[in-house]
Hints:
Helix Hairpins; Glucose Permease (Domain IIA); 2 domains; 3 helices; 13 strands; 63% helix; Peptidoglycan DD-metalloendopeptidase family protein; Cell_wall_metabolism_enzyme; Dup_hybrid_motif
Amino acid sequence: MKIAVKKIFLFASVFSLSCVLMSVNATAQSSDNSDTANKTNQALSKVQQQIVAQEKSIKQTSNKRSSLENKLRSDDISIAKIVKAMIKTQDDFQDTQQTLKALAQEKTTLTHKKKQQEKVLAQQLRAAYTSGHHDYIKLLLNQQSPASVERTVTYYKYLNDARIKEIDQFQIVLSDLLAVTTQHQEQAKKLNRIQQQQIEQKVVFQHTKQERKNTIRALNKALLGSKQLLAQLVAEEQNLVVALQRIAALAQQSAELVGLKKLKRKLSWPVKGKISHSFGSRKQGYLKWKGILVAAPVGKQVKAIHNGTVLFSDWLKGYGLVTVLDHGAGYMSLYGYNQALLKSVGDRVETGEPIALVGQSGGQSQSGLYFEIRSDGQAVNPKAWFK
């Protein structure tokens, strides 16, 4: 009986101890789970904050890129305007120089003529005084016949008319000389103003070029990642395609424009230079060049490959200042990266006519001409058309 009671007591003690241990373990496990959950929530919150911060940074970068692209467009257009103004100023300078040269020659001629007339008039006046005074006294003393008197009077009238004519001509020469001298002085002042204007234009030009360099540097910094650059190039290419589609839709085909189909191996290059990138070569990632890039110095004339109508003449993202010509029958030629555009939408151009100046607009690091030929909207290899 005592043994049975002891066994029961021992079992009860063991059971009680087990319950206590289980309770302790459960409490400890619950505490561990709570700590883990808190840490997980904290980590999740931190990640979410980082995501929000990254999204904000991406948005700021995107806004900055957009602002820089607008600044680049503004810089390119400003440079184009300055260059065109400098060309006009240079033309005015040359015209004024020619005018000054012509006026100087005319002034020399009139001065020489004035001196000759002064000598003639001086001789006539001396002769008139000497012979005229003496003959008049003789006429009175000799009491010549009325017929002789009439002849003498007629003779003196003729001489007097001749002197008056010489004096009138002399007055005209003096008046012309004064007018030419005044014009010469005015043109000289104009030349000085033009020279000062050229100096100011060059200062503004250099300042704008430096601003453009800074913009490109900042834009490239915002596009450091290759994925970002690839996405940028894809967007630019798509932008060009959309623009060309819109241009093609607006094109008014003329019966005179018969296209380029029959002109393969017959056209001249729009600008002479080394080909930096060929049609179909790798551009970035899976992208390929849809045209050719011809290296050429800034300011060199870009010429139309064939007669056509200007369909587009403006700044285009990624391609800078662009001119597009419609050649008829679905053919178009595109000229990009220009420093300045010389033609406006609707202008008719002839083969070989200057339409732009080589540049590096659109954010290019090197100067050159980007050139495309498109047939029914599809880019084709331009080399097939050149001699």
